[in-house]
Specification:
This protein is an alpha+beta fold. The protein has three helices and seven strands; from the N terminus they run αααβββββββ. The strands form two sheets. Strands 1-2-3-7-5 form a five-stranded antiparallel beta sheet. Strands 4-6 form a two-stranded antiparallel sheet.
Length: about 140
């Protein structure tokens, strides 16, 4: 684990048996804390949403696009709401058909700055490594 920008990325004061990645000076846990567009901040948002949106815990789980090697997606549903979690786990952009019920759904969380919110389209254009969560109440 790259903890900070110190010697051996803050992992040990000894001699590590594996080399330290040269990016440790800027890619480390200490640099993530306090940032707004960091992996740490994203995980904090995910934890907060788990406490705020009961659908994440109690909703029925339905996988989507199970055979696609690049897209990881699923729905969570209750009698009063739907949640779509979709991630492009590849480098190449993808367009994914999501259906009419998601038109104008609320973007709850996106992994990339500027992720589009409500749309009048039944498809999503996902950049490489793009993950999003959409919420639709009363549907």
């Amino acid at each position: 684990m790259q903890w900070d920008a110190g010697p051996n990325a803050g992992f040990t004061t000894g001699n590590p048996w594996l080399p330290v990645n040269p990016n440790y000076a800027w890619l480390n846990a200490a640099a993530q804390i306090g940032g707004t567009d960091t992996v740490f901040a994203h995980y904090q948002a995910l934890i907060r949403l788990r406490h705020e949106l009961s659908i994440l815990v109690e909703g029925d789980f339905t996988p989507m696009m199970e055979d696609d090697p690049q897209i990881w997606a699923y729905f969570r549903t209750t009698s009063s709401a739907k949640l779509l979690v979709i991630a492009n786990c590849g480098r190449e952009p993808r367009t994914v058909e999501i259906g009419r019920e998601w038109i104008a759904a609320d973007l709850v969380l996106g992994s990339l700055p500027g992720a589009p919110g409500a749309s009048m389209s039944t498809s999503l254009d996902l950049a490489g490594w793009d993950a999003r969560m959409y919420y639709a109440a009363g549907r």
